[in-house]
Design goal:
Length: 246
């Protein structure tokens, strides 16, 4: 098992990000966690407890200058990045006919452009050691479409294209790039946004008929970040309990 990696996780204070933070810290890795607000990061720090390998820094990944500042923090504190996990996401619900251009752009900026900006800023710290991992979070919604989320699904479909092309561009550096597509995962944000009928329909549509939890995603991410996945790149791993099969 590879240890002592430097792992950057976006959306780290959210339901998915926080469990990833805990898993990599438990492995002895250094984790640099970022999110848009200080308070959730402070709460995560309190939950994790005293750990010199855990660093937090507030950043809005849709802003180029914030991503650049985060890269400086990573360089100054750790000197390199081994694993970049683009976990941050934003999933508003609005019908296409009522959707404004501003709503479209905000959703694309956070879910797609933010991945570009983070990767562009962090890549110089990943090159030069012939080993590295970039793991992007897409969404299983791209396989069937979701009414009321055309902007979100479009952005997540773009993540797949970004992942495939980037994998070809940076393969010579020994860096792999893959995408995880979760199903509707029952985090607090999802509970607050989706009616119970939607959650029930998701459960009933799966081969494994239960809610998807953030913990269900940890294994696939940790595998892709490990030496066991040295020859896997440009791929989509769908983790949705068998709702969509490919």
């Amino acid at each position: 098992m590879k240890q002592d990696r430097v792992v950057v996780i976006t959306g780290a204070a959210g339901g998915m990000g926080s469990v990833l933070v805990e898993r990599f810290l438990a492995n002895g890795d250094t984790v640099i966690a970022t999110d848009t607000k200080d308070e959730p990061l402070e709460a995560l720090r309190a939950k994790v407890g005293a750990n010199t390998k855990f660093l937090t820094h507030r950043a809005d990944i849709s802003k180029e200058e914030d991503c650049a500042r985060l890269a400086v923090v990573a360089r100054d504190k750790a000197g390199r990045i081994d694993v970049l996990i683009n976990c941050a996401g934003y999933f508003p619900i609005v019908s296409f006919e009522k959707m404004t251009t501003e709503q479209w752009r905000q959703t694309i900026d956070i879910n797609l452009t933010g991945n570009f900006l983070m990767t562009h800023a962090m890549l110089p710290l990943m090159k030069g050691r012939a080993w590295g991992r970039i793991i992007n979070f897409g969404s299983a919604s791209i396989f069937e479409g979701v009414p009321g989320q055309t902007h979100y699904v479009a952005a997540k479909a773009g993540i797949v294209g970004l992942t495939r092309s980037l994998a070809r561009e940076i393969g010579d550096y020994g860096i792999t790039v893959n995408v995880i597509t979760p199903g509707l995962t029952v985090t607090k944000a999802v509970k607050d946004s989706f009616p119970t009928a939607v959650l029930e329909a998701q459960r009933n549509g799966r081969a494994l008929k239960r809610d998807e939890q953030a913990e269900d995603l940890v294994g696939a991410v940790f595998f892709l970040a490990s030496p066991d996945a040295d020859f896997i790149t440009g791929q989509t791993i769908n983790v949705d309990g068998g709702k969509n099969m490919h």
